[in-house]
Amino acid sequence: MERIPILRMGPFLLVTIQVDMHDRLALTLQDDLMTQIRDTSARGVLIDISALDMVDSFIGRMIGNIAAMARVLDAETVVTGMQPAVAITLVELGLSLPGVRTALDVERGMALLTQGRDPQGQRGRRAR
Amino acid sequence: MERIPILRMGPFLLVTIQVDMHDRLALTLQDDLMTQIRDTSARGVLIDISALDMVDSFIGRMIGNIAAMARVLDAETVVTGMQPAVAITLVELGLSLPGVRTALDVERGMALLTQGRDPQGQRGRRAR
After folding, report:
1. B127 lies in some domain
2. Which of A74, B35, B114, B126 is the most buried (most CB within 10 A)?
């Protein structure tokens, strides 16, 4: 199993990270995600990291990279399910994930993406 | 990371299996899923196995067990993303997953669950 599955949920793509990421897996995920964004015209990417108890600078950078790449392809990225300890570590590592929006769970993340793209152009507003 | 995350998607729960299952992980997943079904009053469970290139009798039985347990809690189970080789192996192992419905991807699986529970009582009908 050397791929992380990407699930299509309407106009969004959902990725659940549950395994330890190593270089090759991260690169494969990036490639697969960008290909899928193009092929499915996805408008958003949800990355659920609720299974991660801890995070290192490698994963932090990977998430930031994916968000930046997706943005170039006109898709927004929302990271969901971050555990408190992970949030603490990310900030301590100096990785505050600029440009990445977060939500407590996938449902809220999806609401955020749907809302962010509504016709009134409310993109980028914070979820309430 | 000794837990498989369970994502709530509206009235359904979504589980993506990407790691090799061993006994303890399977038991934890069963426990977590049943607790979540009760806590969230979930009406359906989607198990995505698109990351599995191969399957053994252990995983086959685990899926069958989860479906049977969920049914007792009044939730239906749909297995999605099964690869052709996995379907072949399951049947060869004599595990045709009775009582488990399948769909090609999560979107269709969700449609199947929604349709199966509609007010006209069309539960159990095959997806078209």
Report:
1. no
2. B114
